[in-house]
Design goal:
alpha/beta, Rossmann fold, six-stranded parallel β-sheet, 43% helix, globular
Amino acid sequence: MKKILILGSEGQIGSHLKYYLTNKKYDVLEFDIINSRYQDLRISNNQKLEQYIKKCDFIFFLAFDVGGSKYLKKYQKTYHFLMNNVSIMKNTFEQIKKNKKEFIFVTSQMSNMSHSPYGVLKKIGEQITESLNGISVRLWNVYGIEKDLEKSHVVTDFILKGLKNKSIKMITNGEEKRDFLYAEDCCAGFETIMKKFHNLNSHKVIDLNYGKYIKILKIANIIKDIFSKNNLDVTIVKGKELDQVQKNLINASDKILRKYWRPKYNINKGIEEVFRYYKYAYKKNL
């Protein structure tokens, strides 16, 4: 059985991928600072990391200090954010190079946005990945169940605000557009790229996204409709700010992966799945 190492296995995407691959009967190796202080990728010459990399067959490099827009707006220009991610990449890429492992580096469509320190860091990661013959998989906005609510993203934020306050108070005016992909579809895409690694690794960066942009205000209204269907009242309060994180830039994506994979969840179905979880969790005093 193929041994799969997930770096960042407790993160928003990593936790979904861990359960997805386990259910698919892969032998999944978890690695995340939440599990143990010895699983801190910022540590130089981390023997635990080297042990895990040596015994795995494939690596998903998801670990990064990152969160949703509110987290990036607050932290991405700080010293600790920058140095955390520089250390994570330096130590991890050194071990991947030393042990010559096949891997996917998870990057972001913000790597094309030079105004963003986070985007610049991801761009550097893409260049290193290319030098090591790995594949960079570029994500847009992946949504699903989240554990670390300080780093939560817009769908989770809006649902929790609705449940707690009966009001979705937006930071921006909601006119900015995003491309949303449900976590289950994202995991299926990752598995496909891993299985087709040798067919796809001539493409140094592969886009994994839904392929359709939608306004944040529309997301708020979809969530409001779901609340209504569940006999719950919620109001939407638009903010006055413009999008300061991505500056409402829209990047084109390639269609390379569509030959092998297509998303199954539309935005309404995916958000309903997330809402169902948090509604239950909220009753349990989230």
